[in-house]
């Protein structure tokens, strides 16, 4: 009896210590999947994807947590635009997964949504592809990073990385794909996910999806001093920004804002602007778009 009591007492003590150390681990360790404040992880809802239960300690998860995709839902809800359910198709994993077609009577909408652009946006355990991707790398990013979201309202250019990279959809300019389209089989992934050490949590590349200019030389393409992108890019950027300013001044001074010439000139301007601000993903195309806009000057009054 005495022994049993002692055992019980010891067990309770051990249990308490274990609980406290677990709690401490949770609070302080970056390796543990601690709750993410804004990438909501409310496990009581049936919509939470719960990948962190098994993958929370992996570099992919840790990188994702710190980067833009994990804020996509919060930024959508707190953003300046009017919301509708279809915005979730690009801003929240769950819109497709819990669609009426698959999951009759679902209520996955801007009020009940809990996932950002999270693991299940791009991976599924039911996929047969490498890394369990839901789409080949080549087609993955362009499903969301495209200009016509068909939702934000007619004429609003939300994002244009895909169109700029592929060199299309602009007004008055022939197709002009970036040379990188042919050179890079995995397209966006090639620059945005390259990572030196797969075992560690990266600050660039991997699941931060942040591209770094150093990627231009690691592939042996832009490595000589005068060909270096660190030198060239600021020059390109200055050139594009000057042209954008000229187009903007021209657009602002126009009184008839419904003419085709105005709409074409503005579309090209918005495309360059919608691509990381200055047409970085296809400089020759960005230049051609802005040149065409400027050529319309005589038609605008
Ligand atoms: C399901 C839709 C979706 C897919 C697929 C997607 N993105 Fe995104 N991406 C978004 C949204 C939405 C944001 C905006 C997040 C925010 O609110 O800051 C974003 C933001 C980004 C950013 C800016 C990140 C930052 O830290 O500010 C980069 C870079 C990016 N995505 C690259 C990629 C790449 C590369 C791929 C393909 C591997 C990809 N995305 C696939 C929807 C998507
Ligand atoms: C086709 C996919 C897609 C759809 C649909 C979509 N978005 Fe986005 N959205 C994106 C991507 C991609 C980004 C990230 C852009 C970047 O970081 O360059 C983004 C960024 C944003 C941002 C943060 C950056 C900014 O532009 O201020 C807000 C706010 C936003 N979207 C609102 C909305 C709203 C509101 C809707 C619905 C009316 C919507 N989005 C529908 C793809 C989409
Ligand atoms: C926007 C799309 C996207 C999201 C979101 C995403 N992944 Fe990935 N993931 C990819 C792509 C693309 C690859 C393949 C990269 C390559 O081919 O180089 C990949 C590869 C991986 C790999 C194998 C290679 C590696 O980096 O270890 C793991 C594991 C992984 N992802 C886990 C996750 C987890 C866990 C999450 C959620 C935190 C997540 N991914 C979110 C696109 C995504
Ligand atoms: C019950 C545990 C568990 C859960 C929950 C879970 N996974 Fe996994 N996952 C595994 C195991 C085990 C493997 C195979 C081991 C490995 O390759 O690391 C794996 C492999 C993967 C891979 C392949 C990694 C590679 O190296 O190519 C991806 C991607 C992935 N899971 C994504 C997800 C996503 C997305 C979710 C949430 C929707 C999820 N997993 C939920 C256990 C889990
Ligand atoms: C040749 C390499 C390369 C390719 C290919 C590429 N990008 Fe980028 N991307 C970059 C660089 C470099 C930046 C600028 C990063 C910075 O400013 O820190 C960038 C910026 C971005 C941004 C803005 C990031 C931010 O923080 O606001 C988004 C979004 C983006 N790219 C998406 C894409 C998508 C989608 C594709 C495929 C259609 C793609 N990129 C293809 C190199 C590339």
Could you name the key traits of this structure?
single chain, disordered N terminus, 14 helices, 301 residues, binds heme C, globular, mainly alpha, 2 domains
Structure notes:
This protein has 301 residues and is mainly α. The protein has two domains: 31-134, no CATH class; 137-301, no CATH class. It has 14 helices and no strands. It has helices at 2-28, 52-55, 59-66, 72-78, 88-91, 119-122, 137-140, 161-166, 180-183, 188-192, 215-218, 229-252, 260-273, 283-295. The protein is globular, with a radius of gyration of 25 Å. The structure holds heme C (5 copies).
Radius of gyration: 25 Å
What is the total tally of β strands? 0
Q: Classify the secondary structure makeup into a structural class.
A: mainly alpha
Helix content: 40-55%
Mean pLDDT: 83
How many strands, which pairing sense, and closed or not: the largest β-sheet?
A: none
Order of helices and strands: HHHHHHHHHHHHHH
Q: What portion of the residues fall into strands of 2 or more residues?
A: under 5%
Q: Calculate the terminal CA-CA distance, rounded to whole Å.
A: 99 Å
Number of domains: 2
> Counting H and I runs of at least 4 residues, what is the number of helices?
14
The shape, in one word, is globular
Small-molecule components bound: heme C
Unreliable sequence segments: 1-41
Topology:
Layout: H1 2-28, H2 52-55, H3 59-66, H4 72-78, H5 88-91, H6 119-122, H7 137-140, H8 161-166, H9 180-183, H10 188-192, H11 215-218, H12 229-252, H13 260-273, H14 283-295
The structure holds heme C (5 copies).
What does this entry show, briefly?
The chain has 301 residues and is mostly helical. Helix content is 43%, strand content 0%. It binds heme C (5 copies).
């Amino acid at each position: 009896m005495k022994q049993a009591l002692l055992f019980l007492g010891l067990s309770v003590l051990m249990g308490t210590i274990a609980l406290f150390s677990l709690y401490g681990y949770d609070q302080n360790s970056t390796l543990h999947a601690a709750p993410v404040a804004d990438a909501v992880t409310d496990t009581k809802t049936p919509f939470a994807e719960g990948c962190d239960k098994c993958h929370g300690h992996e570099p992919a998860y840790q990188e994702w947590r710190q980067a833009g995709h994990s804020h996509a839902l919060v930024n959508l809800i707190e953003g300046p635009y009017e919301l509708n359910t279809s915005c979730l198709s690009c801003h929240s994993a769950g819109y497709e997964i819990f669609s009426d077609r698959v999951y009759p009577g679902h209520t996955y909408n801007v009020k009940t949504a809990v996932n950002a652009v999270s693991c299940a946006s791009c991976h599924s355990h039911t996929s047969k592809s490498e890394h369990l991707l839901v789409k080949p790398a080549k087609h993955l990013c362009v499903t969301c990073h495209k200009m016509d979201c068909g939702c934000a309202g007619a004429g609003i250019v939300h994002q244009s990385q895909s169109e700029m990279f592929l060199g299309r959809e602009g007004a008055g300019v022939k197709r002009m794909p970036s040379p990188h389209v042919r050179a890079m089989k995995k397209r966006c992934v090639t620059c945005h996910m390259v990572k030196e050490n797969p075992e560690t949590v990266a600050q660039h590349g991997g699941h931060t999806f942040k591209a770094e200019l150093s990627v231009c030389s690691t592939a042996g393409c832009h490595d000589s001093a005068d060909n270096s992108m660190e030198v060239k890019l600021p020059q390109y950027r200055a050139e594009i920004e000057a042209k954008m300013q000229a187009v903007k001044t021209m657009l602002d001074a126009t009184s008839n804002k419904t003419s085709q010439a105005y709409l074409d000139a503005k579309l090209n301007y918005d495309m360059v602007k919608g691509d990381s601000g200055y047409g970085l993903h296809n400089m020759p195309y960005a230049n051609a778009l802005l040149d065409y806009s400027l050529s319309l000057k005589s038609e605008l009054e």
